[in-house]
């Protein structure tokens, strides 16, 4: 059974996904709490690379569009269970060298007070083509 809170959380994830596809950093950050955390798909740590706080998360999000100017996240499906949520999508983007990435991915979220507190991103490690 879907609760009213689940419906609101799914709408939040849909809004968040749409903002990624519009490359709209202000709309993305409107979905995040003031104490937000982002665990990127790659980096030196067990959780990839971690960015904490609004300014660090904002810069990390913007770097996705710098690295992949045509980045898109399509075929999104969202699931919510209490304060936890998952979004599945297909990431597509072209790097500066012309190589393309296309892979399924998931974001695992922690939600707080109607916003995203933590975004933990996972993407299939598929070679560029």
UniProtKB/TrEMBL annotation:
Keywords: Isomerase. GO terms for molecular function: isomerase activity. It comes from the Bacteria. Gene3D superfamilies: 3.10.450.50. The keyword Isomerase applies. This is Ketosteroid isomerase-related protein. It comes from Pandoraea sputorum.
